[in-house]
From TrEMBL:
Organism: Methylobacterium tarhaniae
One GO location term (cellular component): membrane
Name of the molecule in the record: Flagellar M-ring protein FliF
Record key words, sorted: Cell projection, Cilium, Flagellum, Membrane, Transmembrane, Transmembrane helix
GO term, biological process aspect, one: bacterial-type flagellum-dependent cell motility
Principal place of residence: membrane
C-alpha cells in the first residue's frame, strides 16, 4: 500500500468519527497540551530564590526572626551568608525587612563591585551588576527621605550599542511604604531624584507606587 493510499484511508477514518467525536478529541488534545505546558513551567521554575547574599551571621539571625514572625518560610545557604525564600515572596520579604532596617550587612549598593573581578565576567553580568548597584543606591537615598519607611527601585535601561530607531527610553518604578500610609506628597520629589540619577531619563518615565496600593 502506497503512502498516498494510507493517507487517504487515515483521512476517511477521521471523517467517519463525526463532528462530535472530532470536537471531543480536539478538546482532549488541548487539555493535554495545556497540562503538559503548565507542568513544565512549574517544574522548571525554581522552588526558592535568593533574598539577600553577603550577609553577616547577625543579620541572618535577625532576618530569620522577622520572616518567621511574618509567616514567610525561608532557608539559609550552606555557607550561612545568604537567605532564600519561596519563589514569588521576594518583593514582600524585602519590603518587610526594609521597614526594620535590614539587612545591615548586605551588599546592595556600589559595594557589589568590591567583591567582583573583571576575570570571567561578561558584559551582560557587568551591566546587571551596575543596574543592581544603582537601584540599591537610589533606594537608600529614598529611604532617607522624611516619611518614607521602605523603598524598592526597579530600573529598565535600553540596550547599550543598540541602533534601533524604536529604542525605548529608560524607565523606572519605585515602590514605597510611607508613614502615614496614604502620604503621596513626596512622589514628585522621588521622580525628580530618580530621573536625575539616570542619564536620559525623564521624570514622567518614573512610576511611584505605594506598597499598600
Amino acid at each position: 500500500m502506497s503512502g498516498r493510499e494510507q493517507a487517504e484511508r487515515l483521512w476517511s477514518n477521521i471523517v467517519e468519527l463525526g463532528p462530535r467525536r472530532l470536537a471531543a478529541l480536539g478538546l482532549i488534545g488541548l487539555v493535554v497540551f495545556l497540562a503538559v505546558g503548565l507542568g513544565a513551567y512549574y517544574l522548571s521554575r525554581p522552588a526558592q530564590e535568593t533574598l539577600y547574599t553577603g550577609l553577616s551571621r547577625e543579620d541572618v539571625a535577625r532576618i530569620g526572626g522577622v520572616l518567621k514572625d511574618a509567616g514567610i518560610r525561608f532557608d539559609v545557604s550552606a555557607d550561612g551568608a545568604a537567605v532564600l525564600v519561596p519563589y514569588g515572596n521576594t518583593a514582600q520579604a524585602r519590603m518587610l525587612l526594609a521597614e526594620k532596617g535590614l539587612p545591615q550587612s548586605s551588599k546592595s549598593g556600589y559595594e557589589l563591585f568590591n567583591d567582583l573581578g573583571s576575570l570571567g565576567m561578561t558584559s551582560f553580568m557587568q551591566e546587571m551588576t551596575r543596574v543592581r548597584a544603582l537601584e540599591g543606591e537610589i533606594a537608600r537615598t529614598i529611604q532617607g527621605m522624611k516619611g518614607v519607611r521602605a523603598a524598592r527601585v526597579h530600573i529598565v535601561l535600553p540596550e547599550r550599542g543598540s541602533f534601533r530607531r524604536d529604542q525605548q527610553p529608560p524607565s523606572a518604578s519605585v515602590v514605597v511604604r510611607t508613614e502615614p500610609a496614604d502620604d503621596r506628597s513626596g512622589a514628585q520629589a522621588i521622580r525628580q531624584l530618580v530621573a536625575s540619577a539616570i542619564p536620559g531619563m525623564k521624570p514622567d518615565r518614573v512610576t511611584v507606587i505605594g506598597a499598600d496600593g
